[in-house]
């Protein structure tokens, strides 16, 4: 099974100049934990609810600061033709719960561990990916 068969295609994306407050409100409105950051359809990063807390609030940034100050620029992406098993393995290896799907650097969808678990035909892959993603990190002290 290919990622194209299970990915979400109507993905909300925001530009890098959107305010942190506005992107947090958008996450609440559409009930998601991350939003891709795009310029002219090209994905340049992703912001998660965790980014807002750790890089925004904990660093005492103003909530009207642009999301470009906190989003993750290191991207792990997949393709529509990628087998679901490969996507699950990639997500596990990089400990990510959501994988943006691109075609020629343009965002065309996103696949989550939930998509793999619910719609994929590989429950073992979803379980393995979830287990790996959920490994506790060692605290820095």
From TrEMBL:
CDD domains given in the database record: CBS_pair_HRP1_like
PROSITE patterns tied to this protein: CBS
Protein known as: CBS domain-containing protein
Protein's UniProt keywords contain Lyase: no
Top-level taxonomy: Bacteria, Bacillati, Bacillota, Bacilli, Bacillales
Alphabetized InterPro entries for the sequence: CBS_dom (IPR000644), CBS_dom_sf (IPR046342), Diverse_CBS-Domain (IPR051257)
Ranges for domain CBS: 7-63, 71-127
Pfam families xref list: CBS (PF00571)
Repeat is among the record's keywords: no
Taxonomy, superkingdom: Bacteria
Source species: Planococcus plakortidis
PANTHER family registered for this protein in UniProt: CBS DOMAIN-CONTAINING PROTEIN, CBS DOMAIN-CONTAINING PROTEIN CBSX3, MITOCHONDRIAL
Keywords: CBS domain
């Amino acid at each position: 099974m290919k990622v194209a068969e299970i990915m979400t295609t109507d993905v909300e994306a925001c530009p890098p100049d959107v305010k942190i407050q506005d992107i947090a409100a958008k996450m609440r409105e559409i009930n998601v934990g991350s939003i891709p950051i795009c310029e002219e359809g090209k994905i340049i990063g992703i912001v998660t609810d965790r980014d807002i807390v750790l890089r925004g609030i904990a660093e005492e940034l103003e909530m009207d600061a642009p999301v470009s100050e906190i989003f993750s620029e290191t991207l792990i992406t997949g393709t529509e033709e990628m087998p679901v098993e490969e996507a699950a393995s990639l997500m596990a290896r990089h400990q990510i719960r959501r994988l943006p799907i691109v075609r020629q650097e343009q965002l065309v969808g996103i696949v989550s561990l939930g998509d793999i678990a619910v719609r994929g035909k590989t429950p073992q892959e979803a379980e393995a990916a979830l287990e790996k993603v959920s490994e506790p990190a060692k605290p820095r002290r």
